[in-house]
Design a protein that fits this description.
This protein is α/β, with parallel strands linked by helices. The radius of gyration is 20 Å and the shape is globular. 50% of the residues lie in helices and 15% in strands. An 8-stranded mixed beta sheet has the order 1-2-4-3-5-6-7-8, with helices on both faces. It has one domain: Rossmann fold (3-Layer(aba) Sandwich). Strand 5, helix 5 and strand 6 form a beta-alpha-beta unit.
Length: 343
């Protein structure tokens, strides 16, 4: 982070979260004193295991209880996970997006992650991964939708939106790896190892950056976060030999032209970045902002800020100028589509 405005943005979002937590604590205390009960959850999850040419592809999506009034114009969103993660890790975040914004949210687990069967090495590419979104859309009848992508998921979101811009209501790009600046590793580990082991230095630096991200990931509600992460981590350990080639692919990925195509197509984009991200550094955020012409929205946290603070994305969309502008643009595009379909 390089200027006071960036810090102000991040601290504003943190302040929103603190005020909300204090308010929730006060309400919970009042309920306890008066004998009241907590509100019922407004969304439930449905988990789908889809057979695609003999391979299992797992995804989950939010549903509303049977007594919830039907709203066919409700916006769909697809939340794409990062490397060595899965759809379950982002469930807490997606529940909040569904509850607070009224979205129906899908969390896919890409091949080799979160219980989905891996692709063969020769089949592997960003486009091969992004095509699994077609299965989700076909199964659920999704026509237009919002894409959220974190890290690896950001690159997949860019690839899909570049090929299907008219179908994407908006794209939220979080600490993404679609542009190559993050591959230029210049941390302390890289500088120490580069003279003797130039091929090893970038990967060692990346591993040290991931280690630096762990304390932020575990801050706050430690056991709740660990409980949310564990199911996908357990599945990913079993398929780790198949996920290594995905990591190698990401280290040589450059979707700069795809970012430009999405921007030229005038798909609304919101870039959100953790101010302490050592994995995908601020130079990458700056490069993405230069291409899109839209400034980055900064939040407190490291690379995986949304896993440690699952309300942060909803806070950004509801309470920051950039988030509200993006949300308004998405709703206008959705309303235009709904009007065209019902005309």
């Amino acid at each position: 982070m390089r200027n006071l405005e960036s810090w102000r943005q991040a601290l504003d979002v943190a302040g929103i979260a603190l005020r909300r937590d204090l308010s929730q604590t006060a309400r919970a205390t009042a309920r306890a004193l008066t004998g009241g009960t907590s509100p019922e959850a407004t969304v439930v999850w449905k988990v789908v295991n889809s057979d695609i040419e003999g391979r299992n592809f797992r995804y989950r999506y939010t549903e509303y209880p049977a007594d919830t009034p039907a709203t066919p114009e409700r916006i769909w969103a697809i939340n794409l996970h990062g490397y060595f993660a899965g759809g379950t890790m982002y469930a807490r975040e997606s529940e909040r997006l569904a509850t607070r914004l009224g979205w129906r949210v899908v969390n896919p687990s890409f091949p080799g992650f979160g219980g989905s069967d891996p692709l063969e090495w020769g089949e592997l590419s960003i486009s091969a991964l992004s095509r699994f979104l077609d299965t989700v859309r076909s199964d659920l009848g999704i026509t237009k939708f919002v894409l959220l992508g974190h890290s690896m998921g950001g690159a997949i979101a860019i690839d899909y939106a570049a090929r299907n811009p008219d179908d994407v209501l908006g794209l939220i790009y979080r600490d993404g790896v679609a542009t190559p600046q993050w591959q230029d590793r210049n941390g302390v580990t890289a500088r120490v190892l580069r003279p003797a082991m130039p091929d090893v230095a970038p990967y060692a630096d990346l591993m040290s950056a991931i280690a630096l991200d762990i304390p932020d990931l575990l801050m706050g509600h430690l056991f709740t976060t660990l409980r949310a992460l564990w199911p996908d981590l357990r599945s990913n350990v079993k398929t780790v030999t198949h996920s290594i080639p995905v990591g190698s692919m990401l280290m040589s990925l450059d979707l700069t032209e795809s970012v430009r195509r999405v921007n030229v197509a005038r798909v609304p984009m919101l870039s959100v970045w953790g101010c302490f991200d050592h994995v995908v550094t601020t130079s990458t955020a700056d490069a993405f902002a230069d291409i899109t012409g839209s400034p980055t929205q900064w939040v407190i946290g490291g690379h995986s800020w949304m896993l440690a603070r699952p309300s942060a994305q909803s806070d950004v969309l509801e309470h920051t100028p950039a988030g509200r502008a993006f949300h308004d643009a998405v709703r206008r595009r959705a309303e235009t589509t709904h009007a065209a379909l019902t005309a």
